[in-house]
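Weekly puzzle thread! Below is a chain. First person to post its structure in token form gets bragging rights.
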Amino acid sequence: MFTDDKRDFRRMQVNTPANLTTIEPIAGLNYTAECVDLSATGLSLHLDDLLELDTLLQVNIESTHPSIASLSATAKVIRASKEDDGTITAGLKIVQFN
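Winning reply:
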């Protein structure tokens, strides 16, 4: 499903696993996340751990959905929060597609 978002390009809601590996400031830390929506410039994730703002990550999403291609990109954390219900979310801005 596509939605209009004034902050970004059109976003598509997805629920697919994502693997994250930190590049900076500490290289090599790995996180497992669920990508909940994506656009041409960024994505939103649910995680088990809170990410720090401005962390640079290698993001890999292997899609099993026929209309969604697998994604490999370098992205920067621009939003990170823990919701009242305990859900940890992060917003990433894509710096470069790999």
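Puzzle host: Confirmed. Bonus trivia for everyone else. Confidence is low (pLDDT under 50) at residues 1-6.
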